[in-house]
Write a structure and sequence with these properties.
This protein is of the alpha/beta class. A three-stranded parallel β-sheet has the order 3-4-5, with helices on both faces. Helix 5 links the parallel strand 4 and strand 5. Helix 1 packs parallel to helix 6. The longest helix has 12 residues. The radius of gyration is 14 Å and the shape is globular.
C-alpha cells in the first residue's frame, strides 16, 4: 500500500464513498495484501485477474458495478497504470491516474486519465471536488 493510502481511503469512506478493488493480482495475492495492511473492510467488492477477464477488458469493472449496484456515471476508477485507464474507458467510467505508482503521468494521460494526482492528499481533494 502506498504511503498515505490508508488515510486517503478512510477520508473518502468518511465522506460516504464506497470503494472496490479491480486488480491484476490473483485473489490470493490481493487477499494477502489486504491482510498485511488490515484493509479488507475498506472495500465493498473486489475482482482479480484470476476471477474474470484481465484489464483492459471491462468485465472486471462491470462485474463490480453489477454486484454493488454502482452506476458508471457515479464511479471513478483510480489507477497507476495505462491498463487501469483503458479499463475505465472500456467500462464507461471516469479514470483518474496516480503519478506515484507504476507508470509515468504522461502514459496515464495518454491512456485516458482525466486527471493525474501526484499525492494522496491531491487525489482526495480532486475526488471531493468532483462529487461536491
Amino acid at each position: 500500500m502506498y504511503p498515505g493510502a490508508r488515510d486517503g481511503l478512510e477520508q473518502l469512506i468518511g465522506r460516504g464513498m464506497q470503494l472496490a478493488v479491480a486488480t491484476g493480482k490473483s485473489r490470493r495475492g490481493l487477499d494477502d495484501e489486504l491482510d498485511i495492511h488490515d484493509a479488507g473492510a475498506l472495500f465493498v467488492a473486489s475482482r482479480t485477474s484470476d476471477m474474470t477477464q484481465s484489464k483492459p477488458h471491462p468485465q472486471m469493472l462491470l462485474e463490480i458495478l453489477h454486484e454493488t449496484g454502482f452506476s458508471p456515471d457515479n464511479t471513478i476508477m483510480v489507477g497507476d497504470s495505462a491498463l487501469d485507464m483503458q479499463l475505465a474507458q472500456n467500462a464507461g467510467v471516469l479514470g483518474i491516474g496516480v503519478g506515484f505508482g507504476a507508470e509515468l503521468e504522461t502514459d496515464l494521460v495518454d491512456s485516458g486519465a482525466s486527471f493525474c494526482a501526484q499525492t494522496w492528499p491531491e487525489l482526495v481533494r480532486h475526488i471531493e471536488g468532483l462529487v461536491a
